[in-house]
Amino acid sequence: MNKREKQTAVFIKLVNKQLEPHGVVYEDIASNQEWYMQYSTTKKEEASFIQWGVDLIKTELKLNTTLAEREMSWFILQWGLTTTHVAQVAPTPYKARKTK
To answer: Which residues have a Cβ under 8 Å from the Cβ of 63 and sit 6 or more positions away?
Structure first.
């Protein structure tokens, strides 16, 4: 397998892993140019995916950690799913209203 084929195989593995929670694989979305906008993930899931992807890139493409992290950053920038922001709302103490 040449370098380009390895990169393509890693790309497909990354896409499949990212879409795993949605029950979708690369073949399902290959013809849709904006597939990454139709699915979402949380920041926590994205962070976990990024770490998994860095490990995959290091193993499959034989890159060091810094370069693998850079490649994952590019992947997320270009093909990362939209993230849902879960707002952390601090509870406000109840203040009784004075009645007249």
So the answer is: 57, 71
pTM over 0.70, yes/no? yes
Q: If you count them, how many residues does the chain have?
A: 100
Write down the domain spans for the chain: 3-84
Q: How far apart are CA 71 and CA 51, in angstroms?
A: 12
| CA gap 10, 18 in Å, rounded | 12
The secondary structure of the chain, three-state, reads: CCHHHHHHHHHHHHHHHHHHHHCCCHHHHCCCCCHHHCCEEEHHHHHHHHHHHHHHHHHHHCCCHHHHHHHHHHHHHHHCCEEECCCCCCCCCCCCCCCC
pLDDT digits (tens, 9 = 90+) for 36-67: 899 999 999 999 999 999 999 999 999 999 99
